[in-house]
Amino acid sequence: MNTLQKLEYILEQLPLLRSEAILLLGAMFLLLLVRARISQLLLRAYVSIVIIAAIFYSSQEQGAYFSEWIFVDGLVGKMRLLLMVATLVIVWYIRRPYQQIEFYFFLLSGLIGALAMVSAQHFLLVYLGVELASFSSYFLTGMRLTPKSSEATLKYVLFGGVTSAVMLYGLSLVYGASGSLLLTSLVAHPFSAFGLCLFFAGLLFKASLIPFHLWVPSTYQEAPSDAVSFFSIVPKIGAFVLIYHLMQLLPDVYQASAVKMLLAVALTTVLWGTLSALPQIRLKRTIAFGAIAHSGFMLPLTLMGEEGLSAFSFYAAIYALMNLAVFYLIHFHENVEVRSLKFKACNGFGKAAPLFGAAMVVILMSLTGLPPTAGFSAKLLLFTQVYQQFATEADMLWLSYLIIGILSTVLSLYYYLKLPIAYFLKEPKNKFSLPTFTQALAAIILALLMFWGFMQPDILNSFVLP
Protein backbone atom coordinates (compact mmCIF):
# COMPACT_ATOMS: atom_id res chain seq x y z
CA MET A 1 0.00 0.00 0.00
CA ASN A 2 1.57 3.29 -1.11
CA THR A 3 1.29 6.62 0.69
CA LEU A 4 -1.73 7.81 -1.30
CA GLN A 5 -3.61 4.58 -0.63
CA LYS A 6 -2.79 4.85 3.08
CA LEU A 7 -4.11 8.41 3.14
CA GLU A 8 -7.33 7.37 1.40
CA TYR A 9 -7.69 4.48 3.86
CA ILE A 10 -7.37 6.87 6.82
CA LEU A 11 -9.80 9.40 5.35
CA GLU A 12 -12.39 6.68 4.80
CA GLN A 13 -12.35 5.79 8.49
CA LEU A 14 -12.08 9.27 10.00
CA PRO A 15 -15.88 9.54 10.54
CA LEU A 16 -15.43 6.93 13.28
CA LEU A 17 -13.63 9.59 15.35
CA ARG A 18 -16.24 12.31 14.97
CA SER A 19 -17.13 12.27 18.67
CA GLU A 20 -13.52 12.59 19.78
CA ALA A 21 -12.89 15.32 17.19
CA ILE A 22 -15.88 17.35 18.39
CA LEU A 23 -14.81 17.02 22.03
CA LEU A 24 -11.20 17.90 21.18
CA LEU A 25 -12.15 20.99 19.19
CA GLY A 26 -14.58 22.03 21.91
CA ALA A 27 -11.87 21.70 24.57
CA MET A 28 -9.32 23.62 22.47
CA PHE A 29 -11.79 26.46 21.94
CA LEU A 30 -12.17 26.71 25.72
CA LEU A 31 -8.44 27.37 25.97
CA LEU A 32 -8.87 30.39 23.71
CA LEU A 33 -11.49 31.73 26.12
CA VAL A 34 -9.50 31.12 29.30
CA ARG A 35 -9.05 34.87 29.95
CA ALA A 36 -12.58 35.82 28.94
CA ARG A 37 -15.35 36.63 31.40
CA ILE A 38 -18.21 34.27 30.59
CA SER A 39 -21.28 33.59 32.67
CA GLN A 40 -21.61 30.12 34.20
CA LEU A 41 -24.89 29.53 32.37
CA LEU A 42 -23.39 30.34 28.98
CA LEU A 43 -20.31 28.25 29.70
CA ARG A 44 -22.35 25.23 30.77
CA ALA A 45 -24.60 25.63 27.73
CA TYR A 46 -21.55 25.64 25.41
CA VAL A 47 -20.01 22.52 26.98
CA SER A 48 -23.40 20.78 26.91
CA ILE A 49 -23.79 21.53 23.20
CA VAL A 50 -20.32 20.09 22.54
CA ILE A 51 -21.12 16.86 24.40
CA ILE A 52 -24.58 16.52 22.85
CA ALA A 53 -23.04 16.97 19.39
CA ALA A 54 -20.48 14.27 20.25
CA ILE A 55 -23.29 11.94 21.35
CA PHE A 56 -25.33 12.68 18.22
CA TYR A 57 -22.40 11.99 15.87
CA SER A 58 -21.09 8.99 17.80
CA SER A 59 -20.48 6.09 15.41
CA GLN A 60 -22.03 2.73 16.29
CA GLU A 61 -20.54 0.84 13.33
CA GLN A 62 -18.95 -2.30 14.71
CA GLY A 63 -15.57 -3.56 13.57
CA ALA A 64 -11.81 -2.88 13.73
CA TYR A 65 -10.49 0.35 12.24
CA PHE A 66 -7.20 2.17 11.64
CA SER A 67 -5.21 -1.05 11.19
CA GLU A 68 -7.01 -2.55 14.22
CA TRP A 69 -5.93 0.26 16.54
CA ILE A 70 -9.59 1.00 17.33
CA PHE A 71 -12.26 -1.60 17.92
CA VAL A 72 -16.01 -1.05 18.26
CA ASP A 73 -18.49 -3.68 19.41
CA GLY A 74 -21.83 -3.52 21.19
CA LEU A 75 -20.23 -2.96 24.59
CA VAL A 76 -17.92 -0.19 23.34
CA GLY A 77 -20.73 1.70 21.62
CA LYS A 78 -23.01 1.64 24.65
CA MET A 79 -20.28 2.45 27.18
CA ARG A 80 -19.10 5.42 25.10
CA LEU A 81 -22.66 6.72 25.19
CA LEU A 82 -22.90 6.12 28.95
CA LEU A 83 -19.67 8.04 29.65
CA MET A 84 -20.72 11.03 27.56
CA VAL A 85 -24.19 11.18 29.14
CA ALA A 86 -22.66 11.00 32.64
CA THR A 87 -20.29 13.86 31.83
CA LEU A 88 -23.19 15.89 30.44
CA VAL A 89 -25.05 15.53 33.74
CA ILE A 90 -21.97 16.56 35.74
CA VAL A 91 -21.71 19.77 33.70
CA TRP A 92 -24.99 20.90 35.29
CA TYR A 93 -23.97 20.35 38.89
CA ILE A 94 -24.07 23.38 41.18
CA ARG A 95 -21.14 25.63 40.35
CA ARG A 96 -18.62 27.24 42.65
CA PRO A 97 -16.28 30.17 41.88
CA TYR A 98 -13.19 27.97 41.40
CA GLN A 99 -14.89 25.98 38.65
CA GLN A 100 -14.48 28.13 35.58
CA ILE A 101 -13.23 27.49 32.05
CA GLU A 102 -10.30 25.33 33.20
CA PHE A 103 -12.66 22.95 34.99
CA TYR A 104 -14.66 22.27 31.83
CA PHE A 105 -11.49 21.91 29.76
CA PHE A 106 -10.18 19.14 32.00
CA LEU A 107 -13.65 17.58 32.09
CA LEU A 108 -13.68 17.26 28.29
CA SER A 109 -10.04 16.13 28.21
CA GLY A 110 -10.69 13.37 30.74
CA LEU A 111 -13.70 12.24 28.74
CA ILE A 112 -11.60 11.98 25.56
CA GLY A 113 -9.05 9.86 27.43
CA ALA A 114 -11.76 7.55 28.80
CA LEU A 115 -13.26 7.11 25.32
CA ALA A 116 -9.83 6.09 24.06
CA MET A 117 -9.52 3.54 26.87
CA VAL A 118 -12.89 2.04 25.96
CA SER A 119 -12.30 1.60 22.22
CA ALA A 120 -8.50 1.26 21.84
CA GLN A 121 -7.05 -2.05 20.71
CA HIS A 122 -3.42 -0.88 20.64
CA PHE A 123 -1.40 -0.60 23.84
CA LEU A 124 0.10 2.76 22.87
CA LEU A 125 -3.33 4.31 22.33
CA VAL A 126 -4.55 2.68 25.55
CA TYR A 127 -1.63 4.21 27.45
CA LEU A 128 -2.27 7.66 25.99
CA GLY A 129 -5.94 7.39 26.95
CA VAL A 130 -5.09 6.34 30.51
CA GLU A 131 -2.61 9.20 30.88
CA LEU A 132 -4.99 11.80 29.46
CA ALA A 133 -7.75 10.69 31.83
CA SER A 134 -5.27 10.59 34.72
CA PHE A 135 -3.77 14.04 34.20
CA SER A 136 -7.22 15.55 33.82
CA SER A 137 -8.22 13.94 37.12
CA TYR A 138 -5.09 15.29 38.83
CA PHE A 139 -5.94 18.86 37.85
CA LEU A 140 -9.61 18.44 38.77
CA THR A 141 -8.59 17.22 42.22
CA GLY A 142 -6.55 20.35 42.94
CA MET A 143 -9.08 22.79 41.52
CA ARG A 144 -9.80 24.30 44.94
CA LEU A 145 -6.17 25.49 45.35
CA THR A 146 -6.21 24.90 49.12
CA PRO A 147 -3.38 23.21 51.08
CA LYS A 148 -5.42 20.06 51.69
CA SER A 149 -6.53 19.76 48.08
CA SER A 150 -2.92 20.24 47.00
CA GLU A 151 -1.87 17.45 49.36
CA ALA A 152 -4.56 15.14 47.95
CA THR A 153 -3.44 16.03 44.42
CA LEU A 154 0.18 15.26 45.29
CA LYS A 155 -0.78 11.82 46.63
CA TYR A 156 -2.84 11.17 43.52
CA VAL A 157 -0.01 12.28 41.21
CA LEU A 158 2.62 10.21 43.04
CA PHE A 159 0.52 7.04 42.90
CA GLY A 160 -0.42 7.78 39.31
CA GLY A 161 3.17 8.46 38.28
CA VAL A 162 4.45 5.22 39.78
CA THR A 163 1.70 3.12 38.20
CA SER A 164 2.23 4.91 34.87
CA ALA A 165 5.92 3.98 34.93
CA VAL A 166 5.03 0.40 35.85
CA MET A 167 2.54 0.22 32.98
CA LEU A 168 5.07 1.58 30.51
CA TYR A 169 7.70 -0.93 31.59
CA GLY A 170 5.13 -3.71 31.27
CA LEU A 171 4.31 -2.57 27.72
CA SER A 172 7.98 -2.75 26.79
CA LEU A 173 8.07 -6.39 27.93
CA VAL A 174 4.88 -7.19 26.01
CA TYR A 175 6.34 -5.61 22.88
CA GLY A 176 9.62 -7.45 23.34
CA ALA A 177 7.80 -10.78 23.57
CA SER A 178 5.33 -10.36 20.70
CA GLY A 179 6.90 -7.70 18.46
CA SER A 180 3.56 -5.88 18.36
CA LEU A 181 1.53 -3.57 20.61
CA LEU A 182 -1.84 -4.75 19.33
CA LEU A 183 -3.99 -6.38 21.97
CA THR A 184 -4.85 -9.07 19.44
CA SER A 185 -1.16 -10.02 19.10
CA LEU A 186 -0.56 -11.20 22.66
CA VAL A 187 1.53 -14.35 22.90
CA ALA A 188 2.22 -16.89 25.63
CA HIS A 189 5.71 -15.91 26.77
CA PRO A 190 7.22 -15.30 30.23
CA PHE A 191 8.08 -11.70 29.35
CA SER A 192 4.58 -11.12 28.05
CA ALA A 193 3.04 -12.61 31.20
CA PHE A 194 5.13 -10.42 33.51
CA GLY A 195 4.51 -7.36 31.35
CA LEU A 196 0.75 -7.92 31.43
CA CYS A 197 0.85 -8.18 35.22
CA LEU A 198 2.53 -4.78 35.36
CA PHE A 199 0.05 -3.32 32.90
CA PHE A 200 -2.89 -4.64 34.92
CA ALA A 201 -1.42 -2.83 37.94
CA GLY A 202 -2.10 0.47 36.19
CA LEU A 203 -5.66 -0.56 35.40
CA LEU A 204 -6.25 -1.55 39.03
CA PHE A 205 -5.13 1.97 39.97
CA LYS A 206 -7.67 3.59 37.64
CA ALA A 207 -10.42 1.23 38.82
CA SER A 208 -9.69 1.90 42.54
CA LEU A 209 -8.90 -1.73 43.30
CA ILE A 210 -6.63 -3.10 46.00
CA PRO A 211 -3.68 -2.68 46.43
CA PHE A 212 -3.73 0.51 44.31
CA HIS A 213 -6.62 2.18 46.13
CA LEU A 214 -4.74 4.26 48.70
CA TRP A 215 -5.23 7.53 46.82
CA VAL A 216 -9.02 7.26 46.85
CA PRO A 217 -10.10 8.41 50.37
CA SER A 218 -8.05 11.62 50.53
CA THR A 219 -8.76 12.47 46.90
CA TYR A 220 -12.51 12.01 47.29
CA GLN A 221 -12.44 14.02 50.53
CA GLU A 222 -10.61 17.07 49.19
CA ALA A 223 -11.58 17.23 45.52
CA PRO A 224 -14.76 19.10 44.46
CA SER A 225 -17.71 16.73 44.50
CA ASP A 226 -18.51 17.18 40.82
CA ALA A 227 -14.88 16.34 39.99
CA VAL A 228 -15.11 13.27 42.24
CA SER A 229 -18.33 12.27 40.50
CA PHE A 230 -16.49 12.48 37.18
CA PHE A 231 -13.44 10.39 37.95
CA SER A 232 -15.41 7.92 40.07
CA ILE A 233 -17.47 7.12 36.96
CA VAL A 234 -15.83 7.97 33.64
CA PRO A 235 -12.19 6.77 33.93
CA LYS A 236 -13.24 3.93 36.24
CA ILE A 237 -15.79 2.44 33.84
CA GLY A 238 -13.30 2.95 31.01
CA ALA A 239 -10.77 0.89 32.97
CA PHE A 240 -13.27 -1.92 33.55
CA VAL A 241 -14.18 -2.08 29.85
CA LEU A 242 -10.48 -2.30 29.05
CA ILE A 243 -10.03 -5.11 31.60
CA TYR A 244 -12.89 -6.99 29.93
CA HIS A 245 -11.30 -6.67 26.48
CA LEU A 246 -7.89 -7.74 27.78
CA MET A 247 -9.37 -10.79 29.46
CA GLN A 248 -11.05 -11.74 26.19
CA LEU A 249 -7.76 -11.49 24.29
CA LEU A 250 -5.41 -13.15 26.80
CA PRO A 251 -3.75 -16.35 25.57
CA ASP A 252 -5.69 -19.39 26.76
CA VAL A 253 -2.81 -20.57 28.92
CA TYR A 254 -3.15 -17.43 31.09
CA GLN A 255 -6.93 -17.27 31.32
CA ALA A 256 -7.53 -19.46 34.39
CA SER A 257 -4.71 -17.93 36.43
CA ALA A 258 -5.70 -14.37 35.53
CA VAL A 259 -9.32 -14.99 36.53
CA LYS A 260 -8.28 -16.43 39.91
CA MET A 261 -5.88 -13.58 40.68
CA LEU A 262 -8.34 -10.85 39.71
CA LEU A 263 -11.20 -12.55 41.53
CA ALA A 264 -9.02 -12.63 44.66
CA VAL A 265 -8.36 -8.91 44.14
CA ALA A 266 -12.11 -8.29 43.82
CA LEU A 267 -12.90 -10.26 46.97
CA THR A 268 -10.23 -8.40 48.97
CA THR A 269 -11.40 -5.05 47.59
CA VAL A 270 -15.01 -5.65 48.62
CA LEU A 271 -13.98 -6.71 52.11
CA TRP A 272 -11.43 -3.92 52.60
CA GLY A 273 -13.70 -1.17 51.28
CA THR A 274 -16.57 -2.28 53.50
CA LEU A 275 -14.57 -2.68 56.71
CA SER A 276 -12.70 0.59 56.17
CA ALA A 277 -15.96 2.51 55.73
CA LEU A 278 -17.41 1.36 59.06
CA PRO A 279 -15.47 3.70 61.41
CA GLN A 280 -15.57 6.78 59.15
CA ILE A 281 -17.05 10.02 60.49
CA ARG A 282 -16.88 12.05 57.26
CA LEU A 283 -19.44 11.65 54.53
CA LYS A 284 -17.18 11.80 51.48
CA ARG A 285 -14.60 9.40 52.94
CA THR A 286 -17.42 6.97 53.65
CA ILE A 287 -18.64 7.22 50.06
CA ALA A 288 -15.03 6.81 48.92
CA PHE A 289 -14.63 3.47 50.68
CA GLY A 290 -18.07 2.48 49.42
CA ALA A 291 -16.87 3.26 45.89
CA ILE A 292 -13.87 1.00 46.45
CA ALA A 293 -16.24 -1.79 47.46
CA HIS A 294 -18.35 -1.17 44.34
CA SER A 295 -15.19 -1.56 42.25
CA GLY A 296 -14.80 -4.97 43.80
CA PHE A 297 -18.39 -5.75 42.85
CA MET A 298 -17.90 -4.76 39.19
CA LEU A 299 -14.62 -6.56 38.58
CA PRO A 300 -15.93 -10.18 38.61
CA LEU A 301 -18.44 -9.33 35.87
CA THR A 302 -15.53 -8.52 33.54
CA LEU A 303 -14.03 -11.97 34.19
CA MET A 304 -17.02 -14.05 33.06
CA GLY A 305 -16.67 -13.45 29.33
CA GLU A 306 -19.83 -12.95 27.34
CA GLU A 307 -21.90 -14.53 30.12
CA GLY A 308 -21.24 -11.56 32.39
CA LEU A 309 -21.36 -8.87 29.69
CA SER A 310 -25.01 -7.90 30.10
CA ALA A 311 -24.71 -7.90 33.88
CA PHE A 312 -21.63 -5.68 33.72
CA SER A 313 -23.35 -3.21 31.39
CA PHE A 314 -26.38 -3.05 33.68
CA TYR A 315 -24.28 -2.66 36.84
CA ALA A 316 -22.11 0.03 35.24
CA ALA A 317 -25.18 2.04 34.22
CA ILE A 318 -26.77 1.76 37.68
CA TYR A 319 -23.46 2.58 39.37
CA ALA A 320 -23.07 5.69 37.21
CA LEU A 321 -26.62 6.78 38.04
CA MET A 322 -26.13 6.25 41.78
CA ASN A 323 -22.84 8.15 41.86
CA LEU A 324 -24.24 11.03 39.84
CA ALA A 325 -27.10 11.26 42.30
CA VAL A 326 -25.19 10.99 45.56
CA PHE A 327 -22.47 13.44 44.58
CA TYR A 328 -25.04 15.94 43.31
CA LEU A 329 -26.64 15.95 46.75
CA ILE A 330 -23.28 16.04 48.53
CA HIS A 331 -22.26 18.93 46.29
CA PHE A 332 -25.17 20.96 47.65
CA HIS A 333 -23.67 20.71 51.14
CA GLU A 334 -20.30 21.83 49.84
CA ASN A 335 -21.89 24.94 48.43
CA VAL A 336 -23.44 25.96 51.74
CA GLU A 337 -22.29 25.76 55.34
CA VAL A 338 -21.42 22.06 55.82
CA ARG A 339 -17.77 22.51 54.83
CA SER A 340 -16.28 19.62 56.77
CA LEU A 341 -18.95 17.17 55.59
CA LYS A 342 -18.92 15.31 58.89
CA PHE A 343 -22.06 13.37 59.66
CA LYS A 344 -22.69 15.40 62.82
CA ALA A 345 -22.62 18.62 60.77
CA CYS A 346 -25.70 17.32 58.93
CA ASN A 347 -27.72 16.74 62.11
CA GLY A 348 -31.34 17.71 61.60
CA PHE A 349 -30.99 18.70 57.95
CA GLY A 350 -33.69 16.22 56.91
CA LYS A 351 -36.18 17.93 59.21
CA ALA A 352 -35.39 21.30 57.64
CA ALA A 353 -35.53 19.99 54.06
CA PRO A 354 -37.61 16.76 54.18
CA LEU A 355 -37.88 16.17 50.40
CA PHE A 356 -34.15 16.67 49.85
CA GLY A 357 -33.37 14.47 52.86
CA ALA A 358 -35.75 11.74 51.70
CA ALA A 359 -34.12 11.76 48.27
CA MET A 360 -30.71 11.25 49.86
CA VAL A 361 -32.07 8.33 51.91
CA VAL A 362 -33.38 6.65 48.75
CA ILE A 363 -30.07 7.10 46.96
CA LEU A 364 -28.10 5.68 49.91
CA MET A 365 -30.51 2.73 50.00
CA SER A 366 -29.68 2.13 46.36
CA LEU A 367 -25.94 2.29 47.04
CA THR A 368 -26.47 -0.30 49.78
CA GLY A 369 -28.49 -2.53 47.46
CA LEU A 370 -31.85 -2.48 49.23
CA PRO A 371 -35.21 -2.94 47.49
CA PRO A 372 -37.10 -1.26 45.96
CA THR A 373 -34.18 0.60 44.34
CA ALA A 374 -32.03 0.16 41.24
CA GLY A 375 -29.06 -0.82 43.40
CA PHE A 376 -30.91 -3.93 44.52
CA SER A 377 -31.49 -4.97 40.89
CA ALA A 378 -27.79 -4.50 40.14
CA LYS A 379 -26.64 -6.48 43.19
CA LEU A 380 -29.18 -9.24 42.55
CA LEU A 381 -27.97 -9.61 38.97
CA LEU A 382 -24.36 -9.65 40.14
CA PHE A 383 -24.87 -12.33 42.78
CA THR A 384 -26.96 -14.40 40.37
CA GLN A 385 -24.16 -14.35 37.81
CA VAL A 386 -21.56 -15.22 40.46
CA TYR A 387 -23.64 -18.17 41.65
CA GLN A 388 -24.08 -19.42 38.08
CA GLN A 389 -20.33 -19.16 37.62
CA PHE A 390 -19.79 -21.21 40.76
CA ALA A 391 -22.34 -23.80 39.64
CA THR A 392 -20.57 -24.09 36.27
CA GLU A 393 -16.96 -24.22 37.46
CA ALA A 394 -17.41 -25.62 41.00
CA ASP A 395 -14.63 -23.26 42.11
CA MET A 396 -14.77 -22.42 45.81
CA LEU A 397 -13.26 -18.98 45.13
CA TRP A 398 -16.50 -17.96 43.39
CA LEU A 399 -18.52 -19.23 46.36
CA SER A 400 -16.25 -17.37 48.76
CA TYR A 401 -16.78 -14.20 46.76
CA LEU A 402 -20.55 -14.69 46.84
CA ILE A 403 -20.58 -15.09 50.62
CA ILE A 404 -18.26 -12.13 51.21
CA GLY A 405 -20.25 -9.98 48.78
CA ILE A 406 -23.56 -10.67 50.54
CA LEU A 407 -22.04 -10.09 53.99
CA SER A 408 -20.46 -6.83 52.79
CA THR A 409 -23.82 -5.66 51.47
CA VAL A 410 -25.35 -6.29 54.89
CA LEU A 411 -22.50 -4.49 56.67
CA SER A 412 -22.77 -1.51 54.31
CA LEU A 413 -26.15 -0.78 55.89
CA TYR A 414 -24.28 0.45 58.94
CA TYR A 415 -22.25 3.16 57.27
CA TYR A 416 -24.71 4.19 54.58
CA LEU A 417 -27.42 4.75 57.20
CA LYS A 418 -25.26 7.12 59.24
CA LEU A 419 -26.40 10.08 57.16
CA PRO A 420 -30.16 9.33 57.33
CA ILE A 421 -29.82 8.96 61.11
CA ALA A 422 -28.08 12.34 61.28
CA TYR A 423 -30.66 13.87 58.95
CA PHE A 424 -33.81 12.79 60.75
CA LEU A 425 -32.98 11.45 64.22
CA LYS A 426 -30.47 14.03 65.46
CA GLU A 427 -31.23 17.53 66.66
CA PRO A 428 -29.77 20.38 64.57
CA LYS A 429 -27.04 22.52 66.14
CA ASN A 430 -27.37 25.43 63.73
CA LYS A 431 -29.56 26.82 60.99
CA PHE A 432 -29.30 25.45 57.45
CA SER A 433 -29.36 27.04 54.04
CA LEU A 434 -32.25 25.25 52.37
CA PRO A 435 -32.10 23.93 48.81
CA THR A 436 -33.83 25.94 46.13
CA PHE A 437 -36.89 24.61 44.35
CA THR A 438 -34.75 23.55 41.37
CA GLN A 439 -32.26 21.71 43.59
CA ALA A 440 -35.02 19.93 45.51
CA LEU A 441 -36.75 18.99 42.26
CA ALA A 442 -33.50 17.58 40.84
CA ALA A 443 -33.00 15.53 44.02
CA ILE A 444 -36.52 14.13 43.83
CA ILE A 445 -36.08 13.19 40.15
CA LEU A 446 -32.82 11.39 40.96
CA ALA A 447 -34.54 9.49 43.77
CA LEU A 448 -37.44 8.52 41.51
CA LEU A 449 -34.93 7.18 38.98
CA MET A 450 -33.71 4.80 41.70
CA PHE A 451 -37.23 3.43 42.06
CA TRP A 452 -37.68 3.33 38.29
CA GLY A 453 -34.51 1.26 37.90
CA PHE A 454 -36.08 -1.30 40.22
CA MET A 455 -39.64 -1.28 38.86
CA GLN A 456 -38.68 -1.09 35.18
CA PRO A 457 -35.11 -2.45 34.80
CA ASP A 458 -35.85 -3.40 31.19
CA ILE A 459 -35.80 0.29 30.32
CA LEU A 460 -32.00 0.10 30.41
CA ASN A 461 -31.78 -2.70 27.86
CA SER A 462 -31.80 -0.44 24.83
CA PHE A 463 -29.33 1.91 26.49
CA VAL A 464 -26.57 -0.28 27.89
CA LEU A 465 -26.98 -3.92 26.94
CA PRO A 466 -25.04 -4.94 23.82
Short description:
The chain has 466 residues and is mostly helical. The protein has helices at 3-13, 18-32, 40-56, 74-91, 101-119, 123-141, 147-178, 190-206, 216-222, 225-231, 234-249, 252-277, 283-298, 309-334, 349-352, 354-368, 374-393, 396-416, 418-425, 437-455, 461-464, and strands spanning 63-65, 70-72.
Outline the structure in words.
This protein is mostly helical and 466 residues long. Helix content is 72%, strand content 1%. It is built from 21 helices and two strands. A two-stranded antiparallel ribbon has the order 1-2. Strand 1 and strand 2 (70-72) form a beta hairpin. Helix 10 packs antiparallel against helix 14 (309-334) and helix 12 packs parallel to helix 18. The model has no long low-confidence stretch (mean pLDDT 85).
Topology at a glance:
Elements: H1 3-13, H2 18-32, H3 40-56, E1 63-65, E2 70-72, H4 74-91, H5 101-119, H6 123-141, H7 147-178, H8 190-206, H9 216-222, H10 225-231, H11 234-249, H12 252-277, H13 283-298, H14 309-334, H15 349-352, H16 354-368, H17 374-393, H18 396-416, H19 418-425, H20 437-455, H21 461-464
Antiparallel strand pairs: 1-2
Number of helices: 21
Describe the largest sheet. Answer: 2 strands, antiparallel
Helix fraction by DSSP (H/I, runs of at least 4): over 70%
Question: What overall geometry do the principal axes of the alpha carbons give?
Answer: globular
Query: Runs with pLDDT <50, length 5+?
Result: none
Broad structural category: mainly alpha
**What string gives the helices and strands in order?**
HHHEEHHHHHHHHHHHHHHHHHH
The rounded distance between the terminal residues' Cα atoms is 35 Å
Q: Taking strands numbered 1, 2, ... along the chain, how are they ordered across the largest sheet? A: 1-2
Number of β-strand runs: 2
Q: Output mean pLDDT.
A: 85
